[in-house]
Amino acid sequence: MTSLFETERLIVRTWIPECDAEQAFEIYNDPQVTHFLGQAARITTIELQRQRLIENIERSRRHQDGTGSWAIVDKQTTTIVGTILLKQLLNKDSLPTQDYEVGWHLRRASWGKGYATEAGRGMLQYGFSVLNLPMIYAVVKPENHASIRVTQRLNMKPMGRTNNYYGIELLLFQLDAPVKNKGEEWGSGGE
Questions:
Q1: 3-176: CATH superfamily
Q2: I need a surface site. Which of 11, 35, 100, 124 has the fewest CB within 10 A?
Q3: What pTM was estimated for this model as a whole?
Q4: How much of the chain, in percent, has pLDDT values that exceed 90?
Q5: Contacts 24+ apart (CB under 8 A), 147-150
């Protein structure tokens, strides 16, 4: 099991398709979870879910840039509570842009517990301190109020509506990399 990072309550780790497919299926077969993700996100069998996890891991390996999607695991229960991602945003033609997004998908039973914010904060720190990204975006469907609240808790700046990504109108949020003094680690002081 390869852990990307840990937070107070969570482990963010690489998916293990053979072990995780069933729990991932519970997340992505729930129409309330996939409501804002579009029909393509909905999975109909555990085997298809396993295959999608394998494809995601292979895509991350091909890119070799430290981006991808990872399982969010509750340390106490070892349950997978969702997915956290950091990847290039796609334009209307599904081609990668130079912009990177943070995103989260949580199982319904894990909504409202602060997991998206906690994992999102860790992913932003990873993107800035490990990948050295100058800024990270989040894109949210305008009616997805829960995700909008997560972007606010992550101190992401609302940039208005955009049609630049995925061929649909979305709300765009941005967070610039923090300026750090020589020798100072990101996130030190005040957090």
A1: Gcn5-related N-acetyltransferase (GNAT) (3.40.630.30)
A2: 35
A3: 0.88
A4: 74
A5: 147/36, 147/104, 147/116, 150/104, 150/116, 150/117, 150/120
